[in-house]
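Collaborator request, handled under Task 6.
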Amino acid sequence: MEKLITVGFSPHRIETLYFAKNLMKEHDIIILEEPYNENFYAFLEDKISLEKYLETNDFWFPEFVKIASLILKNFYKQGKKIFQIEPYLERVLLIQSKLAKKENLEELLKDPELKEVYQVEHKAVGRLLEFYEISLKEDFLEIVSAVKIFSKADAERFRLRDKLRAKAILKILPEKGKIYIEAGTIHIYFKKLLHIYAGKSWKIVHKFLLEDYLRPITGKPWIFPPGELLTLRYILKRKENSQIENLLAARSLIYIKIIPKEELMPSPKDPFPHAKRELKAIQMVNMLSFEDCAKLYKEIFFIKKPDKAQKIVEDFLRAKGLSF
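Structure tokens returned to the collaborator:
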């Protein structure tokens, strides 16, 4: 039996599940990118219903979780082992639970594992709140600087998250087998760590699950939005370049205003609703200069509907003679 680890890079979108299912069925063990939830295993073992399981958490993508859970249950019945491994988020949830019970923070932070996560999470959340405050100001460069400061703190969070997860997965690897590991598209550093920790004894490959859709259109397996590209630069500790980073930060401010926030359902006419819209939004913002972003930011900042903000950006690009 071979020793194979496949990292499936994918957003939590329903349109990815067909590809995830096809990859998962080729593996013996499935490792999910989520904190341990005893109700999930109760569902797999028919101790509670799917509806009951879904009620136990406030899932960001409930329709995705519903369909994915049914797929995973089928694999579980076939004898595949399924693990939920995401120690960083588990510790965040534990900290939140203890603080909600009015437990003493100083006592809590005597645990070095909790302290490490608390400090990184506290810093990232703090930088995000600072960005929200600064985002109301007139100085666009100051706003962009706040985006970069948050992205650096977020990168620190991702590095720790990936490190903790890679090490936790190492502890449960069997002597042999075929392992499928679910990972968000930004977790490139996680795969790098797997190579460092296990690359000598395991064959490690990866697959961007939407590659079959994106490569014919773009020539690439995945297209990162500007905010993720900025954070990835900091995660991977690329040499700092203020011109590139300022532009990515500026474009990210426009991107987040024009991308749909709700969970979209695939259909025969629109099988990749998220990927299609995200790709268009990325292609649009990639045409914008720093100065363009500064102009558009003021115009669309208070617009809540992404389609309305997108129309403004589309009209702006057409006025510049740019097609997309």
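The cover message to the collaborator said: "Residues 213-224+250-324 form one domain. Strands lie at 3-9, 29-32, 81-84, 177-183, 203-208. Please let us know whether this matches your experimental observations."
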